[in-house]
Write a structure and sequence with these properties.
108 residues, alpha+beta, 2 domains, 4-stranded antiparallel beta sheet, 3 helices, 30% strand, binds zinc ion
């Protein structure tokens, strides 16, 4: 199992080994999907092997493992999209978190 995917980012429950699946691999990128048995949130994680270490981007999702398998062939991400995503996450992380958590009205 990927050491980065040990627990659910939503409820912190530990993943069972069999709930984390390698969906696709196109070196140096691997796409994992996991489903949390506690809160039923899905997680798609792109794991990139880089010379300096492992990078990972996780997306909370409601798609199932089967859907992720079906979509794996469609999920082609270019280097430009990776860089754009990275910039977006860096520059707009607060907005992204607000939208993901839908708590914009509750933040101070
Ligand atoms: Zn969970």
């Amino acid at each position: 199992m990927n050491p980065l995917m040990t627990h659910c980012p939503m409820c912190q429950a530990l993943y069972e080994r069999e709930s984390v699946k390698l969906i696709a691999e196109r070196k140096p990128v691997r796409l994992y999907h996991s489903m949390c048995a506690s809160c039923s949130h899905g997680l798609l994680a792109y794991v990139i092997d880089a010379p300096g270490g492992i990078s990972s981007v996780g997306l909370i999702t409601d798609i199932s493992g089967e859907d992720a398998l079906r979509q794996a062939d469609l999920l082609t991400i270019s280097a430009e999209e990776c860089i754009a995503s990275h910039r977006l996450i860096l520059e707009q992380s607060q907005d992204i978190c607000r939208q993901l958590l839908d708590i914009s009205g509750k933040l101070a």
